[in-house]
């Protein structure tokens, strides 16, 4: 009995000095039920409408609930985002919402938070599953099924292209889960169709101008391209600019497909310059905070919470504009 009491005192002393208590590392940290929480949101970047919409949703829901939100923007740097998470740990937030820039570096940040006794919920991007796992290192992943998004694009292409489809694929950020999965889903969906050939796949970093530059370069190498599959709207819009500068008509001479479903892209579908878009809804706030409250209440949280996503084509784009982000 005396030994047990001594151990309890020793563990308490370690906790006050900031040293990780071994028991924390044996499972997910606990979170008590409170009226308000101090939570962190580590955003990867804010250089496109999707990220801006996601951040706005997180901020608005925190304000509605009366929670304190510690917000950081990594500016597209995985190293900066790791530092942001460590800063939140030092500020002793109750929980962290993380949109990982890249899978591997941010897995270590997730483990740092768990060791400090802070639960983490991943939003829209995952971490390397060989390094960190749901239910052990972080609570859950909330987001879209990226593989299914790519599959939906591939399935649409198979049903709608005519003759030989010669595809340029504009990839998302190297090492990110949406880029990895959107590529896999698409390529798996079209690989059995011999009339579809992928001419080139190159990283456009989910950015509009980078997508334009990459498309411009690839057009010179592959002037016979007649399909563009971009991993997000921003790169698709950049590709449209490159196609038009080359004298091609996007949507007609070249089929254009993308993922995200922002208002600008949906308008381009309505205008006939983009042929097909799969939505990836950025409005995470309500679901994110509700999931954290459920976790604090002791409810069982699944390893993945998949958001339902719509799609847009020539028939549905006009009607979908009103609710697109």
Describe the structure.
The chain has 325 residues and is α/β, with parallel strands linked by helices. The protein is built from eleven helices and twelve strands. Residues 39-300 form the Periplasmic binding protein domain. Keywords: Signal. It is found in: Cell envelope.
Topology:
Layout: H1 2-16, E1 38-43, H2 49-65, E2 68-73, H3 78-90, E3 95-98, H4 103-115, E4 120-123, E5 140-143, H5 146-160, E6 165-171, H6 177-190, E7 196-203, H7 208-221, E8 227-230, H8 233-245, E9 255-260, H9 263-271, E10 276-279, H10 285-296, E11 304-306, E12 311-312, H11 317-320
Parallel strand pairs: 1-2, 1-3, 3-4, 4-5, 5-11, 6-7, 6-8, 8-9, 9-10
Antiparallel strand pairs: 10-12
Helix pairs in contact: 2-10, 3-4, 5-6, 7-8
Keywords: Signal
Protein name: Monosaccharide ABC transporter substrate-binding protein (CUT2 family)
GO molecular function, one term: carbohydrate binding
Notable characteristics:
elongated, 6-stranded mixed sheet, Rossmann fold, 18% strand, 6-stranded parallel sheet, 2 domains, 325 residues, disordered N terminus, alpha/beta
Strand line-up in the sheet with most strands: 2-1-3-4-5-11
Taking all Cα atoms into account, the compactness measure Rg is 22 Å
Return the structural class.
Answer: alpha/beta
Give, in order, the helices and strands.
HEHEHEHEEHEHEHEHEHEHEEH
Helix content: 40-55%
The CATH topology of the largest domain is: Rossmann fold
> What is the molecular shape?
elongated
CATH architecture of the largest domain: 3-Layer(aba) Sandwich
CATH class identity of the largest domain: Alpha Beta
Q: What is the averaged pLDDT score?
A: 92
Number of domains: 2
Strand content: 15-25%
The CATH superfamily of the largest domain is Response regulator
What is the count of DSSP helices, taking H or I runs of 4+ residues?
11
Main pleated-sheet profile: 6 strands, parallel
Unreliable segments of 5+ consecutive residues: 1-25
- How many β strands by DSSP? 12
What is the end-to-end distance? 60 Å
């Amino acid at each position: 009995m005396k030994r047990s009491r001594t151990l309890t005192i020793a563990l308490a002393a370690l906790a006050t000095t900031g040293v990780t208590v071994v028991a924390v590392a044996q499972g997910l940290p606990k979170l008590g039920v409170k009226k308000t929480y101090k939570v962190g949101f580590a955003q990867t970047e804010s250089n496109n409408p999707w990220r801006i919409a996601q951040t706005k949703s997180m901020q608005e829901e925190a304000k509605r609930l009366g929670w304190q939100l510690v917000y950081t923007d990594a500016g597209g740097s995985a190293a900066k985002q790791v530092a942001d998470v460590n800063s939140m740990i030092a500020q002793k937030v109750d929980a962290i919402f993380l949109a990982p820039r890249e899978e591997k570096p941010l897995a270590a940040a997730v483990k740092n938070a768990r060791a400090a006794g802070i639960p983490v919920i991943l939003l829209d991007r995952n971490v390397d599953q060989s390094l960190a796992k749901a239910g052990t290192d972080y609570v859950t992943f909330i987001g879209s099924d990226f593989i299914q998004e790519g599959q939906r694009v591939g399935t649409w292409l198979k049903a709608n292209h005519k003759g030989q489809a010669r595809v340029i694929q504009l990839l998302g950020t190297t090492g990110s889960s949406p880029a990895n999965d959107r590529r896999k889903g698409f390529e798996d969906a079209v690989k059995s169709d011999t009339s579809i050939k992928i001419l080139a796949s190159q990283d456009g970093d989910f950015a509009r101008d980078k997508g334009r530059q990459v498309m411009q370069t690839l057009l010179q190498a592959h002037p016979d391209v007649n399909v563009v599959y971009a991993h997000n709207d921003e790169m698709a819009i950049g590709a449209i600019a490159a196609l038009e500068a080359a004298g091609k008509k996007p949507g007609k001479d070249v089929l254009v497909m993308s993922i995200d479903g922002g208002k600008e892209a949906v308008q381009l579908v309505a205008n006939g310059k983009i042929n097909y878009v799969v939505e990836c809804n950025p409005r995470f706030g309500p679901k994110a905070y509700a999931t954290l409250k459920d976790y604090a209440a002791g409810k069982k949280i699944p390893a993945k919470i998949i958001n339902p996503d719509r799609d847009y084509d020539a028939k549905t784009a006009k009607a979908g504009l009103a609710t697109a982000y």
